[in-house]
Specification:
The protein is α+β, with helices and mostly antiparallel strands. It is globular, with a radius of gyration of 30 Å.
Amino acid sequence: MSELFEAVDALIASASPLPPPAERERLRKAHGLTQAQVAAALEVRRPTVVSWESGKTEPRPPQREAYARLLAKLAQLYPAPAESTPTAPATFTGPSAPVTPQRPEPDSEPEHAVSPAPVHQPVRPTATSILAGTTRRPAAKKVSAKPATATTADPRFENGPLAVIDVEDGQVVAYCVGGLVLDVPAKSLPSLIDWTLAEAKLGAPRLSGPGKDADPLLVLTEAACERYGLPIHLTQEERLSGRLPEGHKVVKQLARAEWKLTKRGLGPWARIYRPAHGGRRACVQLCLPSWGALDTRTWGSAGNLPAVDLARMLGTFASRVMTPRGSTAVTGLELMTALHPPTRASAPDADGKRHSEHNPGSLGHEPVDCAPCEAPDGHPLLKDLPRFHQRGPAEMLIEEAYDWARPLTDDEYSQRYLVGIDVNMAFAAGANGLNVGLDAPTHVQRPEFDPKLPGSWLVDLSHIELDERLPSPFTPKGDRPEGPAWYATPTVAYAVELGYQVAPAEAYVRYENGRYLDGWYNRLRDAYIATMADLGVTADLSPADFLTAMDGYRQRDPQMALVLSAVKATVKGGIGKLRERPRGEGWKPGEPWRALSRPTWRPDIRAAVISKTRINMHRKMAKHAAFTGQYPVAILSDCAVYASDGPGPLDFLPYRQDKPLPGGFRLGVSPGMVKHEGTQTVLWAEAVREEHGYELNLARYIKDGQITGADTGE
C-alpha cells in the first residue's frame, strides 16, 4: 500500500500548481532573492530558473513541488495588488497553462548582487529557509516589482542584438540581454551560424532609414571555443597575423558549409556571411574575448566577466551606441556610416524600379583624395618628396590637442594646491555642430576666408600677440607661430573672432559640406549621460552635489563603468581612425595602405574636430583669466591645471549661487562641462619637476601623482 501512496504523491507533485511566469518573477524579486539563490536552493542551474520565469520551460519533479512550495510561501508574504490580479494570488487551482515565452524583466541589480532588505524586516529569510518552513510573516509593507519594459519593438530581433555563448553542465546556452537564456542545439560552428540566423532572433534595427540592420553578434566564451573546435588562445604567430590559418579545421568546416569570411579571416572579430540574395543579408559577427577581442585599454576587464554579466554589459553598449563591430575605434567609424549610409534607394523610374543613388549628407561610397597638406608622411601624394624630408607647418596641417606647460609664478608657489579639471567628452563636444567637408578638396589661390567653409588654409598668424600666460590657440605646443602655416577652418575663424585680420595665401576648401557628425555626437552624448546616470551622476545635480556624486562613481556598478569607458573610447578612437596610419602588412612609404580605400579615411575631418576642441579649451581659459586673473600652469589635451588655495574645483572656479561664469568652465556631467581630474600639492610639483625637468607637463600626472609614460590624449 505504501508504494501506492508514494505513486499518488509523485503524481500530485508532477502537477503541483504554479502561478504564471510573470508572477513567479514578481514574487522572487519582492523578497529580494536572486535567480542564483533560488537555483542553489532547488539544486538546479540558474538558466533553468530563468527559463521557468520566462515561461520557456516548466519545472519537473522533484524540483516542481519544492518550487511550488517556495512560491506559495512568497505569495503569502507578498500578495499581489488587487487591481492587477483578479483572483486570490496565494491560491493556485492547478498546473499553469501553457504560455507564450516572455522575456524576463531585467533585474535592477546584477544577479550576483543581493537586494537590500526592507527596513521593516531586519533579517530576510532565504529561499532555503522558506522551503524548510522556518519563515515568519514580515510587516505589512510590500516590495513591488519593477514593471517590465520592452527592449526592442522589432519582432525580428526580439531576443536583442547579441548573445554570449557559453557551456554549462555540458549544455550550450546563449545569454541574451535582459536575462534571457536560450538553449543552443548547434554542434558545430557552421550550425551555430545557421541557428543564429534561423531561430535565435538576434540583431538590431537600422539606425537610419537608408541603412542596414545590425547583424547579430555572438560572443564565444573559452568553454564555447573549446566546444566548437576553436583554440582558447591564439599562438604568437596567429596573434601577429590576427587570424587562424586557412588550413584550420573550423575554417574548412565553414568553407564546406558555403560560409565565407572577410579579408580579416577568422580572428578576434570575425564576420561570417553568405553573399546577399534577393536583398537579404546572411551575416553573423563573432567576438572572441580570449583571443583579445575586448582590448583591456578600452574595455577594461570585460573579457573576464561571467557570461551573464558580459551579456548585460555588451547589451547595454549595443542598445545605447550600436552593436560592436570590432574595436571601439572601428565601432566609432561604423557608427558614423550607420547614421549616414553612403547610398539610398532612388525614386521609382519610368518602369517603377528603384536604384541605388548617393545619399545626401553622407561621405559617399568611394574614397576621395585628401589635400597634400592634409596627407600624413608616407602618403602616396608625397612620394616625390626627398626620402628624409621633414615637413614643417608651412607644408603640413598640424592640428593636434594641447600639450603645454609653463613655470609657476611666485604667487602660484605661495598657494598650496594644484587642481586639475577635465572636459567631459571633449572631442565629442568638438564634433557637435561642426561643419565638415563631404567631398574632395578644391585648391584655391589667395581666397577670401569664409568661416563657414570647411578646409585647410595657408595663412600667417605670427603677428597675433596674446597673453603669454596662456598657450597660443594656434599651435598644439602653445608656442606663437613663426610664419605661414596650414590651419583648419576653426583655428582661422578663432583668429577672426579675436579681432585680427587674416589673408590666406592658398586653401583647399570643400564646397559640399554639412554637419556630418551631429547625429554621431547626439547618440554618443546620450549614451554617456545615460551611463553616468546608472552610476549615480545625473544632469540635475548642483556643482557641490556633482563633485560628491563623482567620488567613487565607478565602483557603484563596475559593469556600467566598463560601458562608460567603452563609450569614451568610441569617441576618441573614431576620431583618430579618420586618419588611420599603415599597420605593417609590408607597407613602404609612398605606397597606399588599406585604410585609404575607405570613404571614412578623412584626415581633414579629424583635423577640424581637434582644432575646434583646442579652440573651445582656449576660449574657456581666456574667459576664466579675464574674470579671475587665474591662468593655467599646464594643459594636456582636455585637462587644465590651476594653482589654488583649496583642494577642489570650487575653490577656484567662479560660481555664484551655483551659477558658473558665462562662457567659462562649468561643473557637470554633459559633454563640454568639466569634472575634477585630480589634486596634488605645489610641493609635489616642485619635487617632480626638480627630478624630471622643469618642462614636465604636470597635467599628465595630476590625477594620481605617479610619473608614468606619455599620454597623447588621442
